[in-house]
Amino acid sequence: MKSIRSTKSLCTIKSLLAAAAIAATAGSAAAQQTDGARGVTDLDPRGVYFNRFTGGFPGTEWFTTIPTNGTNRYRLADIVGGGWGALVTPEGAVDILNAPGDGQYSDADNYILNPSFAGSTFIFNNNRAPHTDVDFPLQLFSPVAGNSMLSGVYTTLTQSVNPETGEIQSGNTEDNTVLIVGDIFSITNPASEFFRGVFETPTRVGFRVVVPTPNDLRFRTFAGSAISLNQNLLGSVRLTSINSFEATLLLQSRTGLGNQSQGIVTMSGERVDPYPAGDLNGDRSVDAADRALFIEQIGLAESDDAFNIAADLDGDYDIDIQDLDLFGDVYCLADYAAPAGELNFFDVSAFLNLFSSQDPLADLAAPIGQFNFFDISAFLNSFAAGCP
Predict the structure, then answer these.
(1) Which candidate among 76, 239, 253, 320 keeps its CA 20 to 30 Å from the CA of 63?
(2) 261 within 8 A of 253, measured Cβ to Cβ
(3) 93-96 and 120-121 as β-strands: parallel, antiparallel, unpaired?
(4) What pTM value is reported for the model?
C-alpha cells in the first residue's frame, strides 16, 4: 500500500494501541464447540493466533504454534512458553500430548483447542493473527547482516488494526527513520517511539521482546530486539524492494493471564528519496560498478545471505535472466570500455576477451553459467540498441 503524505497532526503508537485494545475488549467472540474439520488437508499450523478463551476464567492472548522434533509435532504456547506439546495431523486434528485435551482446525487459519489445566476445562478459540502467515518469525536461528542501503527516511502509513477481526481502527501518515546496524533493523517514529528487530534473511526481519524473561529459551527475546513501549512484542518486517517495506507488529500488555490486552500496528513505508533502479551500491548512479555487482547476484534468492534486494528488479525475490533484462533497460550492457556511454570497437574487443575467458561479466543470456551464441546475440542486440 503506497503511503500518502498528510499535513494532519500525527497520532503516536500509544494512541493507536489504545484504540485497538478497546475494540478487542468490546468484541466478544462466542465460544464455539468443535464440530470437525471442513475439508482441511495438508495443514501447516505454524504461526501466531489470537486466542479468546473461556473456562476457569476468560481472557485473550497471543498464542503460537512452533514446530518441534518429530513428524507433525508442535509446541502450542502463549508468548512466554506456557502450553503443551501436541500432535497436529495434516487433516487438522489436534491431540495434546501428556495432558488432557484435544482440538480441531476448521480451516487453515482457525482452530478450537479444549485443554484442561488448573482444575478446569477451557475452550480456546484461535484465529490466525491478521496480517500474518505461516512464515511469521517466531524463532531466530542464524541472524544475517542487513543491507545498509535500507537506512533512510520513509513516508509510512501506520495503522491500528483490531487484533481479532483485522478491522482498521485508525491510521496516520508520518516520516519514520530506518537504521540498519549489522543485523539490527530499527524503525523510529517522530515521537521517538522505536521498534528494533533482527534480520533472519536479507529480506525479512523478526521482532521478539518478552518480559519477564521466559524459562524456555525458545520463547525469549531475540538478541538485539527491543521496544520503547511498555509492551511485549512479536513482529515482522518484509522488504518489498530497496525502497519499501511492510511491517506487522503484534503487541501485548505485560499483565497477568486473563488480564492481557493485544494490539496490532501495521506499517507500509516508501523511501522519501528512492534509489534509482539498478543502483546496487547506493551511490545513486547506475554504472559499471553496479553491473559487476549485479552479475554476482545472478542465481541468488532471498534465502541466500548475500542476496541484495536492489538487484531484484522484478520483485520476485530471486535474481535471474528477467532481472538481467530489466537491468539492461537502465544500463547499457554492451558498454564495456571507456568512454562510458559511447559504444565502439573497444567495447566489442573487451566483450570478446571476457567471453573467451568465460568471465561472468560476459554471461548475458540464459542459461546462466553457460557461454554460447545466446550471450553473443544478447551483446550484439544491446550494442545495436545503443546506450539508454
Answers:
(1) 239
(2) yes
(3) unpaired
(4) 0.84
